[in-house]
Design brief:
- With about 250 residues, the chain is mainly β.
- It has two domains: about 35 residues; about 210 residues, Exo-inulinase, domain 1 (Jelly Rolls), CATH 2.60.120.
- About 15% of the residues lie in helices and about 45% in strands.
- It is built from one helix and 19 strands.
- The chain is globular, with a radius of gyration of 23 Å.
- The relative contact order is 0.22.
- About 10% of the residues have low confidence.
């Protein structure tokens, strides 16, 4: 009897070992097939980016490359502060295609406009060409009352809802919009001032799907360009990013 019990215990033990080994192998295979996430905000520094900044008080001269004396972009404790003092962008050194990009941002209180216009910035993607304000690209508009609009910059294009566009796709339910500070639309997708918002951009082979706080803003195809750099814009207001993660997708 004891012998049979020992045999059964041994068989159960080996079954558990085999299941664990299989699970480990399966996980290893999945890791091989699934590229690792790229943390563009890496928790340490801004080494994944370069800056391109036009001094607001010196518009006669060209923008500066990798010169930021006023601290338009500062990174501390895993959070990127964009001051909004000067028109500028922080660009990835690498170009990317076929990815899911997840960003989390919130507005700060500081503004530089002086005219009462809404807090304004943008998250550009598929940016190509020489550095200028701004490269050919698609832009997820960050603008009070209009966050989630998709702007097409410097000749970029996209087709959505059967319409081929080279200018702008307004977000669903936007309604009448006023360019004034603290403006909120009747069906506002953006969270109140000071709260974090999540943006998701799925960019695969010319297909672009933009989501803000879980709501689809644009779902389009035939994007031009369909790959390129990612730009974090500084425009007229302070904002913060705590996440900018890129998940490579298979073609």
């Amino acid at each position: 009897m004891k012998t049979n019990i020992n045999i059964r215990r041994t068989m159960i033990l080996w079954s558990v070992v085999l299941l664990a080994a299989t699970a480990t192998t399966d996980a290893a295979e999945r890791n091989k097939k699934s590229p690792k996430v790229v943390h563009l905000l890496n928790g340490k520094d801004l080494s994944n980016f370069y800056s391109y900044i036009r001094n607001s008080s010196d518009r006669k001269n060209p923008p500066d490359l990798n010169k930021d004396p006023d601290g338009v972009y500062t990174y501390k404790n895993g959070v990127l502060r964009v001051s909004g003092q000067h028109m500028a962008y922080l660009a990835t050194k690498k170009s990317y295609g076929n990815y899911r990009l997840v960003a989390e941002f919130k507005w700060g209180k500081k503004t530089w406009d002086g005219k009462g216009r809404g807090r304004d910035a943008g998250l550009f993607f598929n940016a190509t060409g020489e550095d200028k304000l701004f490269m050919k690209s698609q832009e997820c508009q960050l603008l009070e009352g209009a966050t989630g609009d998709l702007c097409l910059i410097s000749g970029a294009s996209l087709t959505a809802n059967g319409v081929s566009n080279t200018k702008r796709f307004d977000r669903p339910g936007k309604g009448a919009w006023e360019n004034k500070i603290d403006f909120r639309g009747p069906d506002e997708v953006e969270k109140p001032l000071g709260e974090w918002n999540q943006i998701e951009i799925i960019n695969r082979d010319g297909n672009v799907k933009l989501t803000v706080n879980g709501r689809v803003m644009v779902d389009g195809k035939n994007a031009d360009p369909k790959s390129g750099k990612i730009l974090i814009q500084s425009n007229n207001a302070e904002l913060f990013y705590r996440r900018l993660d890129l998940y490579p997708l298979e073609k």
